[in-house]
């Protein structure tokens, strides 16, 4: 009986070198992508450090005890407005900067804004607001209860912002027009676009009292030095973001997605081409 023959990789046209080369190129591509992503991430944090600070600059919070009469008048206005929201008549609530700050101090659902958010003035079409917002800084490793636990430094955006109030799907948002850091540094447009619209009331969408009130609003805005909340029966609210803007955002997303997919396909094509080329050379030696 004849012994079974074992075909060499050269006779079968298959090369272990081609498989190794494909694996090496794939690993190199992966390392490149991870390194590039890390570089971009740390570059972003470096940019944030330019207009943020290590320590917060707490914003003033009025003392309710020192403004009892104003707080009582505010509570009566808010309650009257809330009751009109349930009726068939138009409802309107006008708030001055002092009343908005007093509401932050007096109402417990707004307590998270205390010390970080202060309305300075009402301009022609926007609010001037002093903020001290905590932001995540560069990631770092800490040695605490768990080895290698990843955390991040906390930076603080101490600044004055100019923002225009608007409605967005049954919540009040702020369209940020400008950010002026206390340090005088310049804030990149990309960061402003990322932060705007600022969904300041998103946390109240599940609140049993605030959520229904926001859902009943048909318009918010600035009028004669006051922040105005309006409910007009029979009028549908107009969202801040239009269909055209949504389509524009979708186009930008698919553009970036398409660029990333194209780069991936180019790398994959190179890997396959090199692998097939080496396989062909070894399988058909000259």
Uncertain runs? 8-12, 242-250
What is the percentage of strand-forming residues?
Answer: 15-25%
**SS-derived structural category:** alpha+beta
User: Treating each run of at least 4 consecutive H or I residues as one helix, how many helices?
Assistant: 7
In angstroms, what is the radius of gyration? Answer: 30 Å
- Tell me how many strands there are: 7
Strand order across the biggest sheet? 2-3-4-5
Our measurement of the CA-to-CA distance between the termini, rounded to an integer number of angstroms, reads 35 Å
Largest sheet: 4 strands, antiparallel
Layout of strands and helices, then pairs:
Blueprint: H1 9-12, H2 16-51, H3 68-85, E1 91-95, H4 97-106, E2 117-122, E3 127-142, E4 149-167, E5 172-181, H5 189-195, H6 210-216, E6 219-223, E7 226-231, H7 243-283
Antiparallel strand pairs: 1-7, 2-3, 3-4, 4-5, 6-7
Helix pairs in contact: 2-7
In short:
With 286 residues, the protein is of the alpha+beta class. The protein contains seven helices and seven strands, in the order H-H-H-E-H-E-E-E-E-H-H-E-E-H. Mean pLDDT is 78; it is low at 8-12 and 242-250.
Descriptive overview:
This protein is α+β, with helices and mostly antiparallel strands and 286 residues long. It has a domain at 51-231. The chain is 43% helix and 23% strand. It has helices spanning 9-12, 16-51, 68-85, 97-106, 189-195, 210-216, 243-283, and strands at residues 91-95, 117-122, 127-142, 149-167, 172-181, 219-223, 226-231. A 4-stranded antiparallel beta sheet has the order 2-3-4-5, sandwiched between helices. It has a 3-stranded antiparallel beta sheet with strand order 1-7-6. It starts with 8 loop residues before the first helix and ends with a helix. Mean pLDDT is 78; it is low at 8-12 and 242-250.
